[in-house]
Amino acid sequence: MEPSTKPTTGKPLTIEDRIYGTYKFSEPVLVELIESDAVQRLKGIAQFGVPDVWYHKKGFFRFEHDVGVAILLSKLGAAIEEQIAGLLHDVSHTAFSHVVDYVVGSTKDEDFQDRILFDFISSDSQIPPILDRHGFDIKDFRTMSKFTLLERPEPELCADRVDYCLRELLVDGDVEDVEVVKMCVSNIMAVDSKMCFSSKNPARLFGDRFLKLQRDHWAGRQAVGRYYILADALKEGMRTNLISFEDFKKDDEYLVRKLESSSNPKIKNDINMLLNGHISHVNLPKKLRYVDPYYVENGKLLKLSENDKEFYEKFLKTVNG
Description:
321 residues, mainly alpha, three-stranded antiparallel β-sheet, 9% strand, globular
């Protein structure tokens, strides 16, 4: 389910979000950015990289995540500049999202879209004029890492990590996961520009779920295998001039149709594996994602791994593979 946008009298813009419920964007700059072509394009970019038609589990779209990050930042009291950054932080994602790193980027870092982000938003026909019209300088968004609620180095919490984890739990989780999401949303807060939880229990619940998703999904053989197989088909498509890199600037459906139309035996075989195979033979590296949440106790910020032996052991096992 992607969030539905329902303009009232043009502005403000009401969003029905699966995590945060009904939220009204009242800042004109945010409304205009949400309605821009660059952000709307994300409705066609799968969050998991491989679109549902070729994936082993149900996903959601980058648009939903980007809007969710902006909402979360607002709820945490972030400045309008940081909310803008949250809304724009994924607009440079190409079709198939992080799969592109397996075609032209780094499989270790999966950072292609981060490296091109500022050039992407600077050259967009709508984003710089929108920012300028509302008194914001495009240069203020050159470095997203300066927005410390949006982005933090691992293993700290940040709006990006928190939103995509909770969103996946709602899309593909069970009844217990739904309750975990509710508890985490109710107890997330910001202290000294750091995201944390108001007590140890929600920190532990979130930490456990995040590490489980890393083990069972993001670095699981099904996901990794599908990344490499789709990347293999895309490389063959580029080698034979079926597709060009310009095509990646469109959306998933456009490239899916191009690949499906090919008579190339290698591409057809890769697509058949994605459609029909239970992929377990691939054992290749994938980006490591992990968190060690902070929580508040007696007015102090505490790190979960330093105060929970069981979590510490899970954390070490994840980090050390």
